[in-house]
Amino acid sequence: MAVIIDGKKISAQIKEEVKEKVEQLAQEGIQVTLAVIQVGKDSASSVYVGNKKKACEYVGIRSLSYELEEEVSQEELLSLIEELNGRKDVNGILVQLPLPKHISEESVIRAIDPRKDVDAFHPVNVGSLCIGAPGLVSCTPAGIIQLLKRSGVEIAGKECVVVGRSNIVGKPVALLLLQENGTVTVAHSRTRNLKEITRRADILVVAVGKRQMITREYVKEGAVVIDVGIHREEGSKKLYGDVDFESVEPVCSAITPVPGGVGPMTIAMLMYNCVESLKLQ
Predict the structure, then answer these.
(1) Residue 117 among the catalytic residues
(2) Which H or E run contains 270?
(3) Active-site residue (options: 38, 96, 146, 212)
């Protein structure tokens, strides 16, 4: 039987550690503050923003909420970001994605001060990760590394395969695994002989965005499997990952469930980044 890697439990540990740091900073007269900007009323975005606010409240981080109309102009949004960049009492800025079609996500991401970019999507933070320089690391990839380390999974010297090459998960998690001395292969939906490549993996990270694509025949006996995908069944509350849990769980040594695996780690690492951003400022 595989060990089920409990993201809820590990994320709770990280939040407790952050809470302690926030309390220490408060004793020194330092208030950690996150500004969250949401454009429009997308229901999934509203849920994510609500969860971020709850996490801030729990760890003691002050959160400022900016809820803008769907029709807001790009200039108005950039002007708000510029104002928050200049505010000494704000040390983290987060713009909830996706944005309406008339606003350029790239322009918005580039407008945030890299030292306040707690999502770590700014090219400066991505570049720092590439060369191993100090900077903020995007939350989901950082959370994956914490899941592995806190579950006692040795990364150094292991064959690591990442399925997926997105800027948000695939590429940064590959770089982080390299930093931990893993031997890393990045594969994707167009990789030839994908099964042969994934079956080499001691650690298999799946962020391909296709429901239950990775089945038993893709996985080496005893591998550790991290499933980043999340898909909701239409007309139901049931969630699925990119990995077919039922067929893969019997062959691997450890696996993250969906839900309750990688998901909770993203918000925990966002709280961690809010505190880390102070050091950069």
Answers:
(1) no
(2) helix 263-280
(3) 96
Instruction: Please compute, for residue 145, the number of CA atoms within 13 A of its CA located in the half-sphere on the CB side.
Output: 20
Judge whether 52 counts as a catalytic residue. yes
Q: Is 13 a catalytic residue?
A: no
The one catalytic residue in 15, 21, 52, 116 is 52
Every domain of the chain and the residues it spans: 29-121, 139-263
Asked if 159 contacts 200 with a C-beta cutoff of 8 angstroms, the reply is yes
Under the banding of pLDDT at 50, 70 and 90, the label for residue 189 is confident
CATH placement of domain 139-263: 3.40.50.720
Task: Kindly state the greatest CA–CA separation across the chain.
Answer: 57
pLDDT tens for each residue of 119-131: 999 999 999 999 9
Topology of 29-121 in CATH?
Rossmann fold (3.40.50)
Q: Select which of 15, 38, 117, 119 is catalytic.
A: 119
Residues 6+ apart with CB under 8 A from 163: 170, 187, 188, 191, 194, 198, 204, 205, 206, 207, 208, 214, 242
